[in-house]
Amino acid sequence: MRRLDINKTTRKIAGSFNRADHGQGNYSTQAELRTGAGDALSKAFEMVATPAVFGVGGWYLDGWLNTRPLATIVAVVLVFTYQMWCFARDYTINLNKALDERRSGYADPSTSLTRNRPSKPCHAESPITTAAEQLYHD
């Protein structure tokens, strides 16, 4: 009968866990996830808190002017519309920045995206592939 060494098994499990989570470049992935979650939480808070603050300000302005729901509705709609425009603008800027980084990686032969790519596909000279391409193009 084999005796199970709990400490050795625990070290193996812990070692594989640490290598899987903290090795070979996974720090950037985890940092990106944390940053993305933090950005999403801050955007959600802005989306709720800012219109609420301006809505309360509109409520007090309505009480002072005796135009009860008008200033509240206008303030909330204007702030919400402005926030949606800002979110869309930021998203577009970040998306274009990421696309530019990605495109620059394709142009640079020293990056890992293009370094291991063969110049011609392995099946380029195959007669079957050539016949299939001719049928497809005709």
Features:
138 residues, mainly alpha, 5 helices, 0% strand
What do these coordinates show?
- This protein has 138 residues and is mainly α.
- It has a domain at 32-111.
- The protein is 80% helix and 0% strand.
- The chain is built from five helices and no strands.
- It has helices at 6-22, 26-65, 70-107, 112-115, 127-137.
- Helix 2 runs antiparallel to helix 3 (70-107).
- 5% of the residues are buried.
- Mean pLDDT is 75; it is low at 16-24.
Outline of the structure:
The chain is mainly α and about 140 residues long. It has helices at about 5-20, 25-65, 70-105, 110-115, 125-135.
Furnish the topology, listing elements before pairings.
Blueprint: H1 6-22, H2 26-65, H3 70-107, H4 112-115, H5 127-137
